[in-house]
Structure formats: structure tokens, C-alpha cells
């Protein structure tokens, strides 16, 4: 599986290693290069299946030789003509963000699935800062049939490495936009019935007519939705038993999105 020695990286101070680390750490670097970094067999395979070809694949031969799926992935990428670069174990450890690396990491063009001209179910993340919640919401939105996700003001960067891992490939299949002001979001949602999830306000979520073109706003973990979302949208809540006051943002979003999916299937 090893590539010729001339292509191998043996030092963590190599400029290419530093460039990958900048892409992982910096939103500005990602936006400037229009590139992202994804790690692991599953995510890279999702990218390939979605038609995205790696700019460069970095791999640790010691790890890929012990992992048939990773070895097969390296061969697939090499067969496409994409650059494959072998790394010493210490170098790959410096690149990897996961606790148990699989030995493959790729630089990819920033995903840009086309925005539908008339979206019928839109999810808006308003101040959702936790990467795990944001990625899980993106994954649930795809599974529930949403056709656009907007990362609004105060939301985490959708191409943060933790959001990418939690999204489980949804980034490559589901259109998303990053919009930092509510005036633009309001224009994007024109013609849609807009609802915002609140802890204990508005109508129950299962009494909303989700068959109509609609948008759902999920607020941040600590402060909930902002004033602009509350002004624009009708509040909905999830009735709960016991003393529980609210649900995790990702869980609440999934519950409501799948109610929308249920109603749309029934229709």
C-alpha cells in the first residue's frame, strides 16, 4: 500500500501538514480555499458517492494495511487520479482529529449541492453553537426530507470538522446556506409558513399543518431562539410529561422534523 518514498511525508513540520491543520482550524482558511478536510472511511466514501473527488488523500500505510476498508478506499481514490500521499504514523497522528484514526484523511472541494428554487421544508439553525447538535440536526433534516438548511446568526460553521463528522455525509447531499443576518434569512423564507421551537409556548408541534411549505427554526442551546426568529415565526412546542422543561436542540429538531415527514407521507 505504500507509495514511493518521494511522495511520503515524514515530518510534522512539512508545509503540507501545516496547510491541512489550517484548513481544519480556520473557517477563514476554508472559505478562502473553498476546501474542507474530512477524515475516515465513511465520510470520504460518502463524498465519493456524491461525486466529490478528493484534491488530496493522506494516508498512514501502517493503519490502512491493517484496515481492508481503508486500503480499498486508498486504491479507489488513486484509481480516480487524485493525489494520494503516504504519511509516517507521527505525521498522520498530527493530522487526525479522531481518537482512533482509520488512517485516511482527504482534502475535498467545499460541498455545494444546488439550492432548490422553491424549497418546501427548510431548517434554520439560530445560534446553534454546539458542533454535535448542528451536525445531528443536519443529518435529521436530510433523513426527514428537508430540502434546505440555513446556518443563521451565531451558528457554528457548518464545515467545522466536528459538524462534518456528526452530519454523517449529509453535507454532500443536502443544500445548506450560511447566512449571518436575519434580513437575508427573512427574504429566503418568503412564501413559507415559519415556525420556531420554544420550550413551552405556542401550539403543540403535532397540530401544525406541516404539509404546507414551511420553515422550522431551532434556537441555540443556552439562550434559545433570538428576537428576530421570535418576531418572524409562530412558536410551537413539544408537550412533555414530568418535570423536564426542554429537550436538547438536536432532539427537539428531530422530533418536529419527523412529525413533518409523517404528515407529508400521509398526504
How far the N terminus sits from the C terminus, by CA atoms, comes to 52 Å
Radius of gyration (CA) equals 21 Å
Mean pLDDT, all residues: 93
What's the total helix number? 11
Principal-axes geometry comes out as elongated
Order of helices and strands: HHEHEHHEHEEHEHEHEEEHEH
Number of strand elements: 11
Q: Report the β-strand fraction as a percent range.
A: 15-25%
Low-confidence stretches: 1-6
Look at the helices and sheets and give the structural class.
alpha/beta
Helix-residue proportion: 25-40%
Biggest sheet details: 7 strands, parallel
Strand order, main sheet: write it out. 7-6-5-10-8-11-9
Keywords:
267 residues, alpha/beta, seven-stranded parallel beta sheet, four-stranded mixed beta sheet, 39% helix, 18% strand, elongated, disordered N terminus
Amino acid at each position: 500500500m505504500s507509495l514511493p518514498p518521494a511522495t511520503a511525508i515524514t515530518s510534522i513540520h512539512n508545509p503540507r501538514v501545516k496547510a491541512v491543520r489550517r484548513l481544519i482550524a480556520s473557517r477563514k482558511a476554508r472559505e478562502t480555499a473553498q476546501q474542507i478536510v474530512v477524515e475516515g472511511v465513511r465520510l470520504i466514501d460518502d463524498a465519493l458517492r456524491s461525486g466529490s473527488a478528493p484534491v488530496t488523500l493522506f494516508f498512514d500505510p501502517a493503519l490502512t494495511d491493517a484496515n481492508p476498508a481503508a486500503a480499498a478506499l486508498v486504491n479507489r481514490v488513486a484509481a480516480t487520479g487524485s493525489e494520494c500521499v503516504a504519511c509516517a504514523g507521527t505525521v498522520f497522528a498530527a493530522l487526525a482529529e479522531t481518537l482512533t484514526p482509520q488512517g485516511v484523511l482527504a482534502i475535498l472541494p467545499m460541498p455545494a449541492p444546488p439550492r432548490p428554487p422553491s424549497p418546501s421544508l427548510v431548517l434554520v439553525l439560530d445560534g446553534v453553537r454546539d458542533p454535535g447538535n448542528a451536525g445531528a440536526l443536519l443529518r435529521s433534516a436530510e433523513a426527514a426530507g428537508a430540502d434546505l438548511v440555513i446556518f443563521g446568526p451565531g451558528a457554528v460553521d457548518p464545515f467545522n470538522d466536528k459538524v462534518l463528522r456528526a452530519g454523517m455525509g449529509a453535507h454532500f447531499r443536502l443544500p445548506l446556506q450560511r447566512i449571518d443576518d436575519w434580513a437575508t434569512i427573512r427574504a429566503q423564507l418568503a412564501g413559507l409558513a415559519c415556525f420556531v421551537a420554544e420550550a413551552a409556548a405556542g401550539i403543540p408541534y403535532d397540530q401544525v399543518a406541516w404539509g404546507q411549505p414551511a420553515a422550522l427554526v431551532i434556537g441555540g442551546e443556552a439562550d434559545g431562539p433570538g428576537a428576530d426568529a421570535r418576531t418572524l415565526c409562530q412558536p410551537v412546542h413539544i408537550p412533555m410529561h414530568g418535570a423536564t422543561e426542554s429537550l436538547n436542540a438536536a432532539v427537539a429538531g428531530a422530533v418536529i422534523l419527523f412529525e413533518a415527514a409523517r404528515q407529508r407521507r400521509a398526504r
